[in-house]
Amino acid sequence: MVFREKFGKDMNGDGGISFPTVPYLPEGNEEWKYSMRRSMQEIVPGVYLGPYSAAVRSKLNDLKKHGITHIICVRHTLEAQFIRANFLEHFKYLILDIADSGTQNIIQHFPTVRDFINDTLESGGKVLVHGNGGISRSAALVLAYVMEKYGLSSKDAYELVQQRRFCINPNEGFMAQLREFEPIYKAQRILQHGQTSGDCIRNKRTCDELEDSEN
Fold it and tell me: What is the pLDDT of residues 9-21, one digit of tens each?
């Protein structure tokens, strides 16, 4: 399905909540090449997803050329020796300790990532989200951001992000948490806009999950 036809429209969530139009980036339709796995791609304006190889010391000029000002570095404690925050003097970092494991609780990090990305964009900056391969952990975080920002299901968000970075493949545990996240962010949006909480009352589990994710 063509990117513009599927996503280039206003989205509405539960309770009539409106979401921004998903921006169309024409270069996202270029043919995917295997070598592109080693570089970063712009998923939505100002938000890049890629591997650690896009943020190694030799890539400083490339990062600056693309206007990167902030970096989200996703790594497990055991990986800290080879997945490093190389440019603390050049970029603002958010470093997250997340293992690429199906049992890892990644949903707890979604609000932190959302706020970091929003702060970046509001300040006129651009952010790179990377893990090791830019395939599972970092992809899941970008998927969650896109879901909440544009009111998408996990399935539609996956399709959108994959059109920009074809090699994404979050583990099954992360995908399950992304599916669980959909009613959570929608309930949160309803409450934030001061609308009726009837949906939350009818679905107490969703509201409990929302509260847990904020704690």
Answer: 444 444 557 788 8
The residue written with tokens 């996990």 in the block is 154
Give, in order, the Cα–Cα distances in Å from 102 to each of 64, 70, 139, 177: 34, 27, 14, 10
* pTM exceeding 0.70: yes
Q: Residue 3 and residue 199: Cα distance in Å, rounded?
A: 31
- Helices and strands in the chain, H and E counts: 8, 7
Q: CA 158 to CA 176: how far, in whole Å?
A: 13
Q: How many CA atoms lie within 13 A of 1 on its CB side?
A: 10
Q: Give first-to-last CA distance, the chain, whole Å.
A: 39
Provide the 10 A C-beta neighbour count for residue 104: 20
Contact (Cβ atoms closer than 8 angstroms) between residue 178 and residue 168? no
Of 174, 124, 147, 123, whose CA–CA distance to 43 is shortest?
147
What are the pLDDT digits (tens) for 36-60? Answer: 999 999 999 999 999 999 999 999 9
